[in-house]
Give the backbone structure.
Amino acid sequence: MEDRKKTLYSAVQPTNNLTIGNYLGAIKNWVSLQNEYDCFFAIADMHAITVRQEPAELRRRTLSLAALYIACGIDPDKCALYVQSHVAAHAQLCWALNTFTYVGEMERMTQFKDKSAKHADNINMGLMDYPVLMAADILLYQADFVPVGQDQKQHLEIARDIARRFNNAYSPTFTVPEGIIMKVGAKICDLSEPEKKMSKSAENPNGSIFLSDDRDTVIRKFKRAVTDSGSEIKYDSENKPGVSNLLSIYSLFSGKSIEEAEREFANSGYGEFKLAVGETVADALSPIQNEQNKLLADKEYLNGVLKRGAETAARTANRTLGKVYKKIGFYQI
Ligand code: TRP
């Protein structure tokens, strides 16, 4: 029998600017997984509209994220890189799966509760249905593995529950996906408040390094990063959260271990250390930014990639959707 590759699925919303935490925790890891797995990487624009988006901005961010995926090293010849709304099966399967999901479960989702509090003037059905759409994303492709951040763990659990529920109600239809919880990105903390995770939507933008930040901005933000009392550059996340966070970032971008980094800066002061981290990050980001800009100048090429990606994705997705429609009793011609 042919040794088939396992399938991997993940997606990012084209909403706020991505931070280095999103990069280290998601896209960078995908690059190393793309040879081993059959990969589908989506731009989750249907999830994005669960909070109000400015249409022109959503369009711009969608294309920009596609360019970023490729600039970071996702190879569109190896993976299906596509926009969620281009594959109709996502909305179609979501509808069917809604009937296998309980309102109570959705009301209990942590992210739904958080977002309802944050967007109290727009608690729309889509916001509540968000996890079911995410389940549809994953289950359409029979994904074996789904790399996600810690914040999506609960959504992945629900996707597994829905898959099992459907399989039990009919017969095995969906692969029950395994989450790969990306720990690295989750460990990257805000530079101003190192007790908190670095976030795309933090109130103080000085604490987050965005992938789109230019060299001067990156270095300025690192220079202002909060360090801890004392003067030693040692990893100690309990007592020295600021320094430890900077060491983690340095280690991930330079490829050196934390111990190597500690040795390298054993005789440095905080100022010198922060500058070195800033320069290392800026050096790593600039080729990605250059490549992204080059790609964005060739819209024709990007459109072609997304078109092919959507066609590849739709083939797999429609196969699964067809099975589901048949099992639930939709009349077939
Ligand atoms: N909800 C995810 C996030 O905000 C993005 C996403 C949408 C996703 N569909 C997915 C992630 C399917 C993994 C699998 O991070």
